[in-house]
Amino acid sequence: MTKENNMEVARRFTRRLHELPSEELELIAGLFVRREVHKGELLISEKDIARDIVFVEKGLLRQFYFKEGRDITENFACDGDGAMCIVSLFTGRRNCLQLESLEEGVIWSISYAGLVELSERYLHIARLLRHLLEGSLMLSQYKADSWRFETSRERYARFVRDYPEIARRASVNHIASYLLMTPESLSRVRAGVL
User: Fold this and answer.
1) Helix, strand or coil for residue 39?
2) Is 153 contained in some domain?
3) Are 30 and 118 within 8 A, CB to CB?
4) Helix axes 22-29, 3-14, angle to 10 degrees
5) DSSP secondary structure string, 114-144?
6) Where would a tag sit more exposed on the chain, N or C end, judged by fewer CB atoms within 10 A?
7) Model confidence over 115-153: pLDDT tens digits?
8) Residue 170: what are its φ and ψ, rounded to 5°?
9) Are residues 104 and 38 in contact, defined by beta-carbon separation less than 8 angstroms?
10) Is the CB of residue 102 less than 8 Å from the CB of residue 174?
């Protein structure tokens, strides 16, 4: 990968969060590492310690865990999205979540420790990191509120509205577990919503 490609990737993934001056954008670009991923590939297992934030250039990822023998989808990330195992990143302990590629694709990883180090010296990178973490926190809160206050039908309608591309590309089983439904319940909801 050329330096120009890394700059374009850094610009694409950071501009939604916080516009960086050229010097700081160049520093961030130097941290990005490109990787091609395959369908079914496990990028992070529950025994790993997460060290990177992942951005999806092309493809579909899902974070998941096992509970009582069931595979539960925690989150999805597709083209242009980021994914991180935040508790493991913050604590340095083994992960509870796994990260799997659901499609052939391309991801870019950036070292969380490297990002934190730069954020201690550069104001705009500190703001970028803050916006990234705030976004992750808000997403978790929206999801928790959805589980608490919305019906199954409302959760599905919100999911389709907010994530149409994921709704189109992810399997019914993965979407159902993300929405805390059985595939059969989701089928009934879809019949009523569509």
Assistant:
1) coil
2) no
3) no
4) 110
5) HHHHHHTT-HHHHHHHHHHHHHHHHHHHHHH
6) C
7) 999 999 999 999 999 999 999 999 999 999 998 999 999
8) -80, 155
9) yes
10) yes
Question: What tens digit of pLDDT does each residue of 17-62 get?
Answer: 888 999 999 999 999 999 999 999 999 998 899 999 999 999 999 9
Tokens representing 180 are 């805390």
- Residue 133 within a domain: no
Q: CA-CA distance, 46 to 109, in Å (whole number)?
A: 18
Evaluate whether residue 60 is within a structural domain: yes
In this structure, what CATH number is given to the domain that contains residue 92? 2.60.120.10
Determine, yes or no, domain membership for 128. Answer: no
Number of compact structural domains in the chain: 1
Give the structural domain span for 87: 4-121
Do 176 and 185 touch, CB atoms closer than 8 A? Answer: yes
**Confidence (pTM):** 0.89
Query: Amino acid letter at 174?
Result: H
